[in-house]
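Why run this: before we spend reagent on co-expression, it is cheaper to look at a predicted model of the complex and decide which construct boundaries make sense. The entries below are exactly what would go into the expression plan.
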Amino acid sequence: MIAHRFSVAETLKHAVLMVGALIVALPFYVMLSTSLKSPGEIERNEGGFFGAQAVMTDEYCVKRNEPERAAIEAARRAQPGLDETAVRTALLATVRENCATRPAIFNYVSAFSEAPLLLYLLNGIIVTASIFLLQVIVALPAAYALAKLKFWGRDLVFGLVLFCLLIPVHAIALPLYIALAKLGLTNSYAALVIPWTISVFGIFLMRQFFMTVPDDLIDAARMDGMGEFSIVWKVMLPTAIPALLAFAIFSVVSHWNDYFWPRVVVTGDRSLFTPPLGLHEFRGGGGDGSLYGPMMASATVIVAPLVVAFLLAQRRFIEGITLSGMK
Amino acid sequence: MRNIRKTFASTQVLKGVELEVADGEFVSLVGPSGCGKSTLLRIIAGLEDGSGGDVLIGNRNVAGIRPSARDLAMVFQSYALYPHLSVEENMLTPLRLRDLSLAERLPLLGLLAPGRKKKLRAMQAAVLDAARTLKIEPLLQRKPGQLSGGQRQRVALGRAMVRKPAAFLMDEPLSNLDAALRVHMRAELAELHRALGATFIYVTHDQAEALTMSDRIAVMMGGEILQTASPDQIYDDPQDLRVAEFIGSPKINTLPAEVDADGRVTVLGRALRRRVVGGAQEVTLAARPEHVAIDPDAAGGGLEARLIHKENLGSDMFLHAGLEAGGTRRRLVVRAAPQMARGLSIGAPVWLRIDPDKALVFNASGARMAFREPVGTAPAATVRAIAVGAVAVGA
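The model came back. Tokens follow.
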């Protein structure tokens, strides 16, 4: 290693990067911290990162398990000599005791119990995985044709691909919605997936990568007797893994986090909610807006898969993003 | 395989090329880059369509036949190995695609196909056989990325060999190797050709590769085959000035000369002892470095020149001599014995004698002019030159 000398430029660079990282990390910190604290601590903004984790009573649990008439009557018979109010208080105390919990546990348990978060996560996986798979099935042959085959109008087609890159999703959301509605496809997985199956970004990215694959390799495959589709799947796909990973990042991250489109096409059926829609449930969930803890707990659960994936494949992610030369 | 004929009328890349390759022959297509030699090879392979003409393989016109169905194997400059497959799988690929039916290649159902095991075993035996020939057996389980250039080269050859094709097409297969390995592989390829007895069509821009390995060489330039002949003929008896200049290292020496009405050749005012067929005209006299003798004094009656540079190659010494010819300075490269060349210092005057029997005369359009039967009357052409330097040219 070369001894690092102090340099103003380098220090400045790192200072800027650290401020940037802080700005990006702060919301995550708040989310994580809030997901661990009790409602009181959240409101009073105290307790540091973890909160005191003091035993608290789950008021919803208490409300749900309020002693019923029959139970009070039964208790009175068991212990004559006590009047109704005293029995009720005693029973309520037991309930309260049973409903005592730690804030962190309360938040995460509520996240899963107040809304079917697991179902939402499953929906998210189904939707993002099908989108990515279909995008690959469409983009790879298209990119191969654009990069390696000579046909009349190829440049025009590629020009159209580039043009489509410029169209924002929101501009075509309404016509897309109307089309899906007329086909009777709203409130279905199809509605969540179909509009994204053709990714011009994917076609563009893969085409740029395929341009770098030597023609000799394709010619060799042809000499060996492969057809054009075999070449796409058996030769181009394995060589394109890094590019495909880069594309996977863009595709999975954007569709996992997408709130806009699921909100548009899933109007009633809660069983089709994707994680961001599920998160929305908590917004007015308790009516009093005191459900920040569980809400942030669900948010943590939702971003966790992406964060874990990133940590596991950090190096490849960075390679992929550098490769695509974007962002 | 016989009768590869290729005619292109309309493209600029190839202007009506005719080439016949006999069974078991090693034919090199050699020429500068961009002369259309690779295009020709790709047309033979079926990777590109010609705009006219036919390719016949063993009297079968292969127009419209898929590359894989032509029974040819190709070795590419970049080797073009599948990077995600092991060496063994790379070599198996062409066999799998040729010998297994579509059903047998299916991922799971294929396992049920009858006879598949037997076929696979036969294929593996073929791969092992080729690997043994090429001495790459220990590498079979590696990925191409873990191999050196020379090893990849062998694998690419192996992938071509397992098919036992009618002909091997090679597109500059050695040009990515370093110089020492290239010389080594040159000998190996030639031996492999002898051992397999297969037909090789070999494209290269390196005249040394063509000269060392081929049975016949086709020199291509500007989309045409200028001459097809054995390496000896190409070197000693080129039919075109461009062929003479392209083949041979160092390059052949050329001097302007005149032919009089009797066909007598005069170079720089000296008559060459030989006469050519043809009337009075301006011609180019060409002589290989080994066909020019160098004298330290004027006694031999040579052309006076000055030594410019010496190149010592150990076994030989190439001397560069500068001489005045018609107002312009010309540089001639002469091969000399090291003992003799050592005695000459740069800047010293030398006298050059061109061997009249070995000299080549080309007319203004570059076509070779034949000598008439020796007359032996004219004195040897002498060129006055001053020795300026010696360059040793090594083999």
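Confidence is low (pLDDT under 50) at residues 375-395 of chain B. The first strand of chain B starts at residue 26 and ends at 30. Bring this page to Monday's planning discussion.
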